[in-house]
Design brief:
The protein has 145 residues and is an alpha+beta fold. The protein folds into two domains: 63 residues, no CATH class; 51 residues, no CATH class. It is built from three helices and five strands. Strands 1-4-5 form a three-stranded antiparallel sheet. Strands 2-3 form a two-stranded antiparallel sheet. A hairpin with a 6-residue loop joins strand 4 and strand 5. Bound molecules: zinc ion (ZN). The site of zinc ion has 7 residues, from strand 2.
């Protein structure tokens, strides 16, 4: 059988400076090995780190393994981290602002905001965006053949 790796995000740190620890490097004072190393998922085996190795977590999140920089460059690409304050889609933000303003500008006689109306409108909006995205994906598929 042949397999393809599923895309998956990982956090990795590169060991670039002798003596400067990176996440995953063994820091156990009682460990028999003194040179920089990690413990892998395979029987907790220790593997020496070389300068510029990348240290990646094993799927169990407890153990780590090193990856040579050239292999790392071939198999991984950096994920651009998004600024949460960045406006990704001005149209969507504008619609949400309008709905929130409608709610905040219209408290009832005792000062309670119409949150259920707001939620219903938000649901409609989100569902219509999902439908539009599905249609767009389908159209794209048809164009691609
Ligand atoms: Zn160790």
């Amino acid at each position: 059988m042949r397999f393809r790796k599923k895309p998956m995000e990982v956090s990795a740190e590169q060991y670039t400076e002798l003596g400067t620890p990176v996440k995953g490097m063994c820091a156990n004072a009682h460990c028999l090995r003194s040179a920089p190393h990690v413990h892998t998922i395979h029987d907790n085996q220790s593997v020496m780190l070389a300068l510029n190795d990348w240290v990646l977590p094993e799927p169990d999140g407890v153990h780590f393994y090193p990856v040579k920089p050239d292999i790392f460059a071939k198999t991984y690409e950096a994920i651009e981290e998004r600024d949460p304050t960045e406006i990704k889609d001005g149209r969507i933000r504008s619609r949400i602002c309008t709905l929130m303003s409608e709610m905040l500008d219209n408290p009832d006689d005792v000062g309670i905001f119409p949150t259920s109306v707001f939620m219903a409108k938000m649901e409609d909006f989100v569902l219509s965006e999902i439908e539009a995205a599905k249609k767009e994906a389908k159209d794209q598929q048809n164009r691609d053949g």
